[in-house]
Specification:
There is one protein chain. With 261 residues, the protein is α/β, with parallel strands linked by helices. 33% of the residues lie in helices and 23% in strands. It is built from seven helices and 15 strands. The strands form four sheets. Strands 6-5-4-9-12-14-15 form a seven-stranded parallel beta sheet, sandwiched between helices. Strand 7 and strand 8 form a beta hairpin. Helix 2 packs across helix 3 and helix 5 runs parallel beside helix 6. The N and C termini lie far apart (43 Å).
Length: 261
């Protein structure tokens, strides 16, 4: 099964590469190029369209402009953004105590927390497949939810993931988001992840932490995945919109600013 998923991922990456170079791809052309069937290519098109990176057209598909978000920033800007995310993760790790059981969602920032928890005994419940490639302490116990794999983010989604989370109660929840506002709460760019995020918030009997760099403060993305009254803390950087920070605080959310910005 693992090899099969790997082949699917490689084939879909080849499709995206072709679309990037040619703008439009015919189903039959890709089937010949990748030595597979038209039905398989159509299935790949469906999955990639669900991820929001392509648009199917009659006889083929085209790449959605800007969907891959390939290096929209300069190297210097990317380095700065990376440092901010690392700083946010490092600050969040300060709130983890020995013996905690924590929810971590599919966020690339939230999963970085595990690089900073040091010598603490922690149970991590996550739908983030990237955890499998991390070098974790022997004191960190991992429960990976399982479920359908959302390829672009390597996250686990669907009924299986949600059912596993529903059977677990965590002491803390650390969640990255695509956006957060005082009115609409937290949001994500991936529809399939909304129910997973909601269930994590619901099954946390302690504080919930939203990890969001300043570009996400005051922004509502495509899909709502939690009300603001489910959020106890937001960890962000000092560039966050001051007006929106004040509005969040008025809703009872405590704002924590990361260091080294």
């Amino acid at each position: 099964m693992k090899n099969a998923k790997g082949l699917v991922f490689k084939r879909q990456q080849a499709i995206l590469k072709y679309l990037k170079e040619n703008k439009f791809a015919k189903t039959e052309d890709l089937a010949k190029l990748l030595n597979t069937s038209n039905i398989t290519i159509r299935r790949d098109f469906q999955n990639l369209e669900n991820e929001g990176v392509i648009k199917r057209r009659y006889g083929g598909a085209e790449l959605i402009e800007g969907a891959l978000n390939e290096d929209p920033y300069s190297n210097e800007e990317n380095d700065a953004r990376h440092k901010i995310k690392e700083s946010i993760a490092k600050k969040a790790a300060e709130f983890i105590e020995d013996g905690d059981s924590i929810f971590i969602n599919s966020s690339s920032t939230a999963i970085k927390i595990l690089d900073y928890i040091q010598d603490k005994r922690v149970v991590v419940i996550t739908n983030n497949g990237k955890i499998l490639g991390m070098n974790l302490s022997s004191k960190v116990e991992v429960i990976l939810t399982g479920g359908e794999v959302y390829g672009r983010k390597q996250s686990m989604v669907g009924d299986i993931a949600t059912q596993i989370i529903s059977k677990i109660t965590a002491t803390k929840c650390f969640m990255g988001v695509s956006g957060i506002t005082s009115n609409s709460g937290i949001s994500t760019s991936v529809l399939q992840e909304t129910t997973v995020n909601m269930k994590m918030l619901e099954n946390c009997n302690g504080p919930t932490f939203i990890l969001a760099d300043s570009s996400k403060i005051g922004i509502h993305h495509n899909f709502s995945s939690g009300d603001i009254d489910k959020v106890n803390y937001v960890i962000t950087d000092i560039n966050a919109n001051k007006e929106e920070v004040k509005k969040l605080e008025e809703k009872g959310v405590e704002i924590i600013f990361s260091e080294d910005n």
